[in-house]
Amino acid sequence: MKTRKEPALTIGTAIALFGLFTAAPGSSLTGLRAVQAATTGTSQGLAAIDAAARSGKYLFVFFWKSHDEQSRTMYGVFQSATSKWAEAADSIGIQITDPREKPVVDKFDVSRAPMPLVVAIAPNGAVTKGFPIKFDENQLREGFVSPCTAQCLKALQDRKLVLLCVQNEKTQFSQVAWSGAQDFKADARFAAATEVVPLNPEDQREAVLLRELQVDPRTPQAVTVLLAPPGQPVAKFAGAVTKEQLVAELAAAKSGPCAGGKCGPGGCGPKK
User: Fold this and answer.
1) Which residues are CB-neighbours of 188 under 8 A, at least 6 positions away?
2) Number of structural domains, the chain?
């Protein structure tokens, strides 16, 4: 059974680096100077991203441009917060004017971003949050997201479709819904540009994502959500779903007034 399409979700706003603007107060940029001085012609930022991924850690990157008061204050907040998360996350400071860091600056397209800026990166490479100008420890902590959220974000940031399959051994129609998703991905038209992500509704780590998707964690039936870049929900199905239904919904979305995300997050919303 198809449920009505919901407005764009918070997961979509995380695709945009500055999707969640934040706010509050700290220290010196001595540490940043040390990082820059230690660079020997290669990008410390790219090395840090690779090292964090290999270790299964998050990486928090503090981008800055000049030694102004705001950057010094926010770097103090950044250092204080990330020092508490050393087991789960690495951190690094990057001056965007350092030519050796151009690959990282270009990768995240931050050359014209408001500074300072913290970008949170999941172990799989997904950008989970961006915090420009002012932030506090609690806000930075929001950079940690659930495993399924990180999987969805990574796929969407890679310009892929996501079939999020909310189901477990207790939900009805799980096998037929899973088969429908797998059949869709097996179609040559969509295979290279589709990720199928399973989500156990009883997994407490996924509570926030389920709430954003407006899926009851106690759902008696499997729920399949089709997401398209940059994070737009195309359709949500409760119970059985077939490849043909998914293809039809995708085609309808491509031909609609919001095709290509023209309306942006929270755009036109459901049809009346």
Assistant:
1) none
2) 2
